[in-house]
Amino acid sequence: MLNKIQITAILLWGIFSVNFLSFPVLGITTDAKKTLSFDTSIAEDATPEVLEKVMNSPEVEEIFFEPGTYHFYPDKGLEMFCRISNHNDVFVATAFPLLDRKNITIDGQGATFIFHGKMIPFIVENSKNIQLKNLTIDWYMPFHSEGLIVANDEEKGTFDMQISTDFPYEIRDNQLIFVKEYYEHTIGQSILYDRSRKAIMFDTESYTPVTTSKKGGEQYSLDSIRYRYKVDERAPGLRDIGMESRIWVEQLEPGLVRVHNHGKKMPPVGMVMAMKGEQGENRLAPAIRVVDSKDFQLSQVTVHHAGGMGLIVENTENIRIDHMVVSPSGDRVVSTTADATHFVGCRGEIHISESLFEGQLDDAANIHGTYQEVVERIDAHRLGVRMGHYQQQGFKIGRPGDKIGFVRLSESFFPFHELTLQDTEVLNGRYQILTFRESLPENIAAGDLLENIDAYPAVIIENCKIQGNRARGLLLSTPRSVKVLNNYFHTEMEAILVPVESGHWFEAGSARDLLIEGNTFENCVHSGQNRGVIRFITDDDEEHTAFEKIRIIGNTFRQFDPMILEVNNVDGFLFKANTIEYSDAFPSLFPDNPVVKINASKDLNFTDNTYKGKAKKMIVNTNQNQNIKFD
Amino acid sequence: MLNKIQITAILLWGIFSVNFLSFPVLGITTDAKKTLSFDTSIAEDATPEVLEKVMNSPEVEEIFFEPGTYHFYPDKGLEMFCRISNHNDVFVATAFPLLDRKNITIDGQGATFIFHGKMIPFIVENSKNIQLKNLTIDWYMPFHSEGLIVANDEEKGTFDMQISTDFPYEIRDNQLIFVKEYYEHTIGQSILYDRSRKAIMFDTESYTPVTTSKKGGEQYSLDSIRYRYKVDERAPGLRDIGMESRIWVEQLEPGLVRVHNHGKKMPPVGMVMAMKGEQGENRLAPAIRVVDSKDFQLSQVTVHHAGGMGLIVENTENIRIDHMVVSPSGDRVVSTTADATHFVGCRGEIHISESLFEGQLDDAANIHGTYQEVVERIDAHRLGVRMGHYQQQGFKIGRPGDKIGFVRLSESFFPFHELTLQDTEVLNGRYQILTFRESLPENIAAGDLLENIDAYPAVIIENCKIQGNRARGLLLSTPRSVKVLNNYFHTEMEAILVPVESGHWFEAGSARDLLIEGNTFENCVHSGQNRGVIRFITDDDEEHTAFEKIRIIGNTFRQFDPMILEVNNVDGFLFKANTIEYSDAFPSLFPDNPVVKINASKDLNFTDNTYKGKAKKMIVNTNQNQNIKFD
């Protein structure tokens, strides 16, 4: 049955088209084997028709949608189990399974796709030359919830939230549970948003996250449980052990909820609390998932929301993104509940341009490899390896022929040995057997880390705007050429974080050829954390070099706080022709910081810069083996 | 490194064998391509070696184990996602994936396999002529927990449990959480066990289950969530909505826990409370899973425990079980946490003999088909169908060529139309598209049920002992020849339940040729429920025939309560040469019941029976259209 909007649309279309087009009546017009067209007669639930045609049209190269709004429900979707890096392992439905396909363009022609529940709008696996363009992705009910702070009482330790009917909830055992279509979440991870700035609130770390849990509760005989092998106490299933609820809530009137016993400062009236449920459970429905593919392109794609990342790409070669928009729809303050874009184990080139990333609850782009850990030597050519993080389960480190580097971070951030991958056998989420072409050398030992030296991309990120999000702008961990050009940053944490990290996220890779040029950084790191706008950091106390050939040229920094740079473990650093200005947007949080903090670094060059800020000192260099001057 | 026990075993073996056997030193002896032998040098964690050899020996036909105790850990096991009927959809590890194999015998030679955590010991898929024999399956830590009732206070509504160190726990937000290897569970489903009788406690329904939850908690805007399609409000994810905890617990001293606010009678001192966590979450690790196979045999297999069923068989032809033992190990009162054996959509013959089923938390054997529900007609040959129960997700109703019957239970329990299955397309757990060879007739409508007429087995169950378990002895739903011969029953609910059921479990099939002969039924239905020892029942109020050709001959009933038979919707019933005796084992719960209750049935014949009981009346026939005499 057609509804009124559809009938109007068809009538309007009829006026303009009836004389020169055949009239589509069944919702699907197949012009030729290579083209599929969908119109809005399927809009009430487009899933079954789109799914059937996509699955049964192996030769199709172009898929068009008539402009309009299409709903996609999971009930008749193709269910897939996906292990996705930096997400939960998920069971989700999709209407667009692009599996083992090539040369397909999906052109929304401006259409909006509204998803319902646990779905991944686009799944691209083992495919080549896939392009998505001119379409908008949103969810009918988001995977996060929002509450307006309307009162607080610092003495009693309570704050009150007004919650709109867009975010249905119930109070269960004195805890706030937001109920969605086919989903529910607790307060879990939370942060404050300032509507007046369209951004995360200044100094939110003093107020959030809501301190939902605490250690507590009697335990009996738990020490009798002994695991034979390493277990991840941070993973769901183990991390709740020994923890109890700290906060409790009461409903004052329908839609008005009081939160008791929060342990930080009470959230200020007028701010919006964004809540997304427990870590490890709240990344379940990214908007676009690409894995094991080549030549993937996004153009003019808007992602208003996702229960996870906007785009997550793994083990893929060449990704091109232009005019992507990640931004909340309607009254919502949050867009995607995790990173706008994220790339793991990719190669070739990642090119992101002319895009807007705002309101997402994590980084705009995070690009890295994956460390795996040696468990044991099985025979002369085989190693048992372990995935370190629970959101890397099942990740394949590479393809046959890839060079795998063995790293012992206590000795060096660079590999001490390289071998050629022959085969990966994924026995379970945590454990794989890797076979190498060469014999294993004697000195590879349990605890050593592996990284894929061939699976790092060159990167260009240019003319993008990154603002109003939680966390970083860019997180860059690749030794290939990286160029960050002419972008704008207004981020809650570091604008650009360049890490080597092995203890928690197991995200491999370090910068060895990084150019940051022509960008504007405005009042970044306003979270309340004491960090540089651009920050090079390792998570070990090692003194050896992690980063090389870093150039930061011709950028403008406009900051309320003195510190611009944190430079650790860098060999070869040029900071040239940058302008640093003072901003009174926020009160200074760390006025005693220098502009530049340096540690364990050498060959640093600061030249031709213009300083208009208020710092009391320019450079603090912990290892005073070099005389560095800021000019 | 060998431990002391292994060294002793090897030395002992050496004494007897060194002169005429080659000495196995690597844990695995491959005598020939067709034989694999494992010895106890791999016993500390047998998973990696067993898995590698099983997977990489496609021609093997015999797998032997040296007698001894072998531990199997999940960490290096093959992880599989399994949708298993009447279980959770599970991710589990296994060391024995028998996938697409044939002619394999695994002979434990008396070995004991101890599993750790979420594993399925044996997974048999799409295989032919597989036999398991002479082995024992147990878990190091069980998936259930037990507490001895040491005190209660009817006035305050509390009872106290003493919990041994075998069942580690913690108290989290005032709730009791039992912590296991890689798993935890709440009190959830619970029942009382009487150690003095090695059986479920008499009249446990008055005391259990522990009333853990209640309706409650404020809700806001939940009515704005509207599902487009049918949803299952009993499924995990939806059923918690609107529910809160009712009970709370406190630790009086380590290992001693007081439970407050239980809503039934307080459990008596001296009984053991068996607890297994929430329904829908506690069937995750059956001992043996068989699906889509032919000619499966179990011989001399003991299952001491499983977190689910002992044996679950789906869509398989010919199953033979002899000398199976399902019985708890050590001090435990519970064996498997669900049925001892369970068969769904099987065909050919199921033959169970000389077996003992005791202490399991559900039926000894449940044999049935599966109803699926018509969602919509897609085209002339295709139907969209829905799986009714969340533990039937992904179940394939049959193979190409199978006869599918369409049933409208309000009109008849027998199909009104039959079609030939051509293809099943499983789009997701709940929704499939079925293609039929013939055109769909006009009268098939949404809501009609489908059953596979070809996928019902003939059954023989003989010389078995079923005792001390929760729930039924046998649950029989197949129209083929069923013979229940010379068994002993001491069950908490019905000894034999013959249902037609469509509203909750969607378990299809009805008896049409059932012989129950030479069995002894002793004090069954002591749960506190008002039911017959043998019970024919439909879950609708329909009057038409569901069951035919029922013969109950030469059995002995020894019961504390009058009622022996409940006969509903039967056409053709012979009750002959049975002896009914009185037992004073328990006080009578329903002394006013007749011996036989009859409704909507015809052609009934009671003859040559001997009655030595205390009933006040013999037969109550609701439809007095027949003059039935008990003699």
Description:
Chains A, B: Keywords: Glycosidase, Hydrolase, Repeat, Signal. Chains A, B: Pfam families: Beta-barrel_GLAA-B_I, Beta-barrel_GLAA-B_II. Chains A, B: It comes from Echinicola pacifica. Chains A, B: InterPro entries: Beta-barrel_GLAA-B_I (IPR057275), Beta-barrel_GLAA-B_II (IPR056441), Pectin_lyas_fold (IPR012334), Pectin_lyase_fold/virulence (IPR011050). The structure is a homodimer of 631-residue chains. Chain A has 631 residues and is mainly beta. Chain A has 4 domains: 4-142 and 283-358, 3 Solenoid (Pectate Lyase C-like); 145-275, no CATH class; 370-452, Thrombin, subunit H; 456-621, no CATH class. In chain A, 4% of the residues lie in helices and 45% in strands. In chain A, the strands form 7 sheets. Chain A has a 23-stranded mixed sheet that branches. In chain A, strands 7, 9, 24, 26, 29, 32, 41, 44, 45, 48, 51, 54 and 57 form a 13-stranded mixed sheet that branches. The first copy, chain A, has a 7-stranded antiparallel sheet with strand order 17-16-23-11-12-22-21, with no helix packed on it. Chains A and B meet through strand 5, strand 6, strand 13, strand 19 and strand 20 of A and strand 5, strand 6, strand 13, strand 19 and strand 20 of B.
* Portion in strands of chain A: 35-45%
Q: Low-confidence stretches of chain A at least 5 residues in length (pLDDT < 50)?
A: 1-25
Which CATH architecture of the largest domain in chain A would you pick? 3 Solenoid
Level-1 CATH class name of the largest domain in chain A: Mainly Beta
Domain GLAA-B beta-barrel (chains A, B): 145-272, 382-450
InterPro entries (chains A, B): Beta-barrel_GLAA-B_I, Beta-barrel_GLAA-B_II, Pectin_lyas_fold, Pectin_lyase_fold/virulence
GO molecular function, one term (chains A, B): alpha-galactosidase activity
Protein name (chains A, B): Alpha-1,3-galactosidase B
